[in-house]
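Q: Precorrin-2 C(20)-methyltransferase, please. Structure only.
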Amino acid sequence: MSLLGTFWGIGVGPGPAGYIPLAAVEALQQADIIYAPRARTSETSVALQCLTGIAINQDRIREIEFTMDPDRTMLSDHYAQLAETIAVDLRAGRNVAYLTIGDSLTYSTYGYILAALREYLPDLPQRTFPGITSYAAAAAAMGWPLGEGKERTLILPCPEDAAALRHDIESHDIVVLMKIGARLPWVLALLREMGIAEHCAFARRIGLADEMLADDVSDLCATSAMGYLATLLIRKTPRERRHSHQAILPDALRVNANLLQENLS
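A: Structure for Precorrin-2 C(20)-methyltransferase:
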């Protein structure tokens, strides 16, 4: 009986090349097959774009087409078929890497694939490498803290109606909103109605050619901003100032600053 190959789940991106752990790069170089998801509506795999600069034999890459069908039965069948295909490679002793955009286990299709594979191959040698979430990348791109002090942060897919989202915002200090899609127009309208749009930030396709970043969504156009890989960072109140310029100045600089202020007044 042949030994099973190893299965690796690898989070890449989102967007900028280089957002990948060194240990995951080593696994990629050992993989016999690399599965790279591609949206049915896209000509290229964003996951592969995130690997720019890493030397990988293109013959080992298999692009797999995904469609985010709202029909859960269709999706379940899709994941089961993909897991069965991957299981064939693993049973043949091949090492397989599966790419996912962002973190491997945060609202990711990888979690479904892994669960299905474990049913087919209970003794599967497997390792999951964590990746950078879209909201962590968005926060870093705009210098937007996701939580300070004892602020309460909620991470969720966009609700279906404004009342539910309003409740989530009012009961938390910060809300990270994912999977927004066509709901963006009424979401932005709600933020403006609540008078908090200027405290909120928006990011889409971070690090890619058509990147969109906004650290104030008061005037953000929903029509041009809608699309895949979009994240909203919602803050209920203005960020609290937690520092004092006077306190952090060295004594000599503080004296000079005071003298300058006296001369100007």
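A: Brief note, in case it's useful. Residues 22 and 237 are 38 Å apart (CA to CA).
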